[in-house]
């Protein structure tokens, strides 16, 4: 058994994963804005507590961690959405946890999981995107991650799509994830509805499902969805034009909003003159492993 840990920009998820990639037990915690002020302590204490509980029930051989941002030689060089820089998390955790621990970028972990067990296992060349607090990504060619050398690369969320656009936590302006992450969409939707972050993603999805012309916010909500699809399409079309993948997989919290976005996304990509090489169809699939791809991939 292995423990897979997915450290997202707004959550911590941990699971016991068997050798077939099945999660036997899972726990999850949402990270509040207040907790981000002391994020290292929050992460470490949660992992210590839940790992201790798991070890009482399962024979664990190692731990894998998936985290957004740049990881080099086991150290989190920077994770802008978690506010971390030069963080040797493995060293801190091994003060109390005496097991082998490895760490890698979360999007790449999820991509590996989907390539081995999920939506991308039938394709030789694919792109995987995680749409959540930010946008992460990976390119898979012949069942292997694209090798970008000493640094992990594929920071798709930080390609600039708006000159002098919104300021990103990375320090640049106009980054794709400021417009097309699920956080960007949810924050804009909450603003339209006049609610705060306590309104969960599930509650927002229920509102979208019930949105009709009787809703006084109907026009604003529809306009937001259209703008979100446009921004998402711009970034994805850039990736298609560069890599010409056979398929694109999308994970993160986007998977729960598939019914709202997916068909409109495909239609926009095919009909809005965004692709250099015209296509009659496009394969875009949401992660079969849902939001668990990071946990499973961390153990691979």
Key features of this structure:
300 residues; alpha/beta; Nucleotidyltransferase, domain 5; 5-stranded mixed sheet; 9 helices; 23% strand
| Alpha-beta classification | alpha/beta
Which word captures the global form?
A: globular
Q: Give helix and strand order, one letter per element, not per position.
A: EEEHEEEEHEHEEEHHHHEHEH
Helix content: 25-40%
Count of β-strands: 13
Rounded to the nearest angstrom, the radius of gyration is: 19 Å
Low-confidence stretches: none
Largest β-sheet summary: 5 strands, mixed
Q: What is the correct CATH architecture of the largest domain?
A: 2-Layer Sandwich
Overall mean pLDDT: 93
Task: Estimate the strand proportion.
Answer: 15-25%
Instruction: State the domain count.
Output: 2
CATH class assignment of the largest domain: Alpha Beta
Give the neighbour order of strands across the main sheet: 3-2-1-4-8
CATH superfamily of the largest domain: ATPase, nucleotide binding domain
Per the CATH scheme, the topology name of the largest domain is Nucleotidyltransferase, domain 5
Give the count of helical stretches.
Answer: 9
Distance between the termini: 12 Å
């Amino acid at each position: 058994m292995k423990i897979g840990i997915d450290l997202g920009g707004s959550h911590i998820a941990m699971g016991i994963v068997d050798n077939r990639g099945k999660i036997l037990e899972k726990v999850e915690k949402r990270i509040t804005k207040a907790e981000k002020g002391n994020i290292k302590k929050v992460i470490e204490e949660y992992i210590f507590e839940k790992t201790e509980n798991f070890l009482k029930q399962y024979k664990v051989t190692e731990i894998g961690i998936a985290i957004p941002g740049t990881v080099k030689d086991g150290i989190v060089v920077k994770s802008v959405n978690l506010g971390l820089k030069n963080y040797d998390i493995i060293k801190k955790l091994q003060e109390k946890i005496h097991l082998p621990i490895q760490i890698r970028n979360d999007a790449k972990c999820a991509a590996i999981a989907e390539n081995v067990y999920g939506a991308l296992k039938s394709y030789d060349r694919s792109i995987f995107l995680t749409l959540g607090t930010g946008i992460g990504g990976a390119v898979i060619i012949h069942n292997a991650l694209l090798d970008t050398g000493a640094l992990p690369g594929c920071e798709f969320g930080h390609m600039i799509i708006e000159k002098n656009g919104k300021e990103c936590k990375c320090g640049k302006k106009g980054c794709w994830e400021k417009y097309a992450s699920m956080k960007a969409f949810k924050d804009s939707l909450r603003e339209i509805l006049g609610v705060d972050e306590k309104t969960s993603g599930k509650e927002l999805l229920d509102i979208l499902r019930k949105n009709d012309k009787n809703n006084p916010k109907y026009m604003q909500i529809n306009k937001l969805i259209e703008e979100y699809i446009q921004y998402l399409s711009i970034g994805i079309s850039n990736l298609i034009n560069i890599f010409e993948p056979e398929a694109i997989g999308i994970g993160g919290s986007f998977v729960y909003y598939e019914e709202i976005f997916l068909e409109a996304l495909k239609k926009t990509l095919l009909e809005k003159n965004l692709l250099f090489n015209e296509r009659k169809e496009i394969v875009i699939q949401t992660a079969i492993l849902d939001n668990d791809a990071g946990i499973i991939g961390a153990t691979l």
